[in-house]
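Checklist before submission:
- one chain only
- standard amino acids only
- sequence pasted in full

Submission:
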Amino acid sequence: MLLTLDDVSKSFGGLMAVRQLSLAVEQGEILGLIGPNGSGKTTAFNLISGFLKPDSGGIKLQGKDITRLSPPKICASGIARTFQMVKPFSHLTALQNVLVGRLYGCSPAKTQAEAREECYRILDFVGLAGKHQILARNLTLVDRKRLELARALAAKPKLLLLDELMAGLNPTETDAAMRLVRSIRDSGITVIMVEHIIKAVLGMCDRVVVISAGEKIAEGSAQEVVNNQKVIEAYLGKPRYA
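Returned file contents:
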């Protein structure tokens, strides 16, 4: 397994955000992590990426314990992420934003010239060809999401965490984002995605884990999960996707 969580729990005061969460992610798959708002999905991402430390349980990447590592060390180990609220360096160009990821990540580039060449390719790959010198604050929402993704890819991750990449996109943009995520997986990068757009979950995920109130309530294929009665009651509301 590429990543394993073993009985991971995290509380904030009296609120249990994640409760004894266990899951395993295989190399080369797209795993969906879904559930109601406030169910603990982003907290799980924060635990995996080191922004938070669990109260109990353990997290391993390729068998190595990363539970207590700092975010920079976890990134250097091969995990990168995006954020639901995109967080570019707004005063820097698109290229400069991605250079940050390439110079500080897993297997950093040896020279700035090498880094720049790779960053041009990454920006082209995500659909930002010709926008390398535009300041991040002047990009559209869609392009800022692409930039967020490009910066994560520049860190050369083995595992990419996507936090609601498709939120706010129209259907055409969503389809394009789905194709891009598949291309990322086909390039050899494993993906865990938090997503509320069920079309995207059904269309991309090899497996889906559902959490509610911090606990895992279902796991299986996308079709199995969206037709699971517990999931319908806790999240979907009715079996519209049978």
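Reviewer check: The domain at 3-78+157-241 is CATH 3.40.50.300 (Rossmann fold).
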